Amino acid sequence: MTGRSDWELPDVPTGQIIAGNYVRYLRDNLGLRNADVCGLAGLSHTSMSCTESGARPLSQEEAETLLAGPYQVPESGRRGFARFLSETAFAVRFREVLPLDKAVDHTTGWPDRLAALEHRATKACVYAPRLVPGFLRTPGYSARLIDQPDPTDLQIARPTTIGTHTTVVLEESVLMRILGAPPMFAEQMQYLIGAAAEQLITLRVLPLDSAVHGDFPEQLAEFVLPSGARVYAAESDHATYYSGLTEERRLGGFLARVTEAALPQDASLTRLRLARDKALGGNRLRLH
Asked: 66-98: string of b/e by CB count within 10 Å (b at 16+)?
């Protein structure tokens, strides 16, 4: 993956690993052995193994040969996977007009690459002004946010845990948006309550009438990496990464202010319990 080395992103593109897992899944699902298909793709046994593990990139030609041949994937699925391979090859795109401490990742699989960064963090703070952060979403909540199915049927999903204890600041508006059926939203609220109770996260709610609200309509996170470097990720329908002392003062300062202005965890959990109970009752009124 292209990118700044001090961000400590994986050396192997996450999309490359996903592609390998996908073709291995197809082979296993048909009950085929590595030896049954490697020759058809013009690969040695070793090369095929490396491809399936993600250590070796899968070319468009090899993918088309396998998917159209032994794996029997329809043309629409092959086109979707070809597009995935093409976009993965240029995962993080730098723009010449931007400083070196900013990069935009807007291609297929960007949530998975963001998750890889999350898991390397030793400390994190996430501010979510509109929606529950991806790594804390229940399957039902996530399903309501997905407008179109993945054409490759890869079902790429964010993990349910982050690599370190994390402070999560939810804007109160998140609790007032009953996304999907009320019982499903109540389940999401209960999941957040449980995550805080199990000390997986520190959960804070920023009241709507707080004097501190953001310049960031999308989700913003600060990740402290093992080297001590800080990376900031703004997330909407893509990810934008920032680093450097200027961004540490600007974005780190903003996250510190919203965290300080948010309610303590006990009071925040009370808000979540109210949101859960009112969702179960079909009530969308203000929580207090």
From this structure: bbeebbebeeebbebbeebbebbeebbeeeeee
Q: How confident is the model at residue 156 (pLDDT cuts 50, 70, 90)?
A: very low
Contacts of 156 (CB under 8 A, 6+ apart): 18, 109, 111, 112, 150
Q: Write the single-letter amino acid at 172.
A: E
pLDDT per residue as tens digits for the range 209-240 = 777 766 666 789 999 887 788 889 998 778 88
Under 8 Å between Cβ of 203 and 192? yes
Query: Is the pLDDT higher at 90 or at 66?
Result: 66
Strands (DSSP E) found in the chain: 102-105, 123-128, 166-171, 201-206, 219-224, 230-235, 239-243
Taking each helix axis from N to C end, the angle separating 14-29 and 60-68, rounded to the nearest 10 degrees, works out to 20
User: Do the Cβ atoms of 238 and 227 come closer than 8 Å?
Assistant: no
Q: Give me the torsion for CA of 207, 209, 214, 220, rounded to 10°.
A: 10
Rounded to the nearest 10°, the torsion over CA 216, 243, 103, 92 is: -120
pTM for this predicted structure: 0.64
Q: What mean pLDDT comes out for the span 163-169?
A: 83
What is the DSSP code (8-state) at residue 57?
Answer: P
CA-wise closest residue to 158 among 145, 177, 147: 145
Three state DSSP letters for 161-205: CCCCCEEEEEEHHHHHCCCCCHHHHHHHHHHHHHHHHCCCEEEEE
Q: What is the pLDDT at residue 42? A: 86
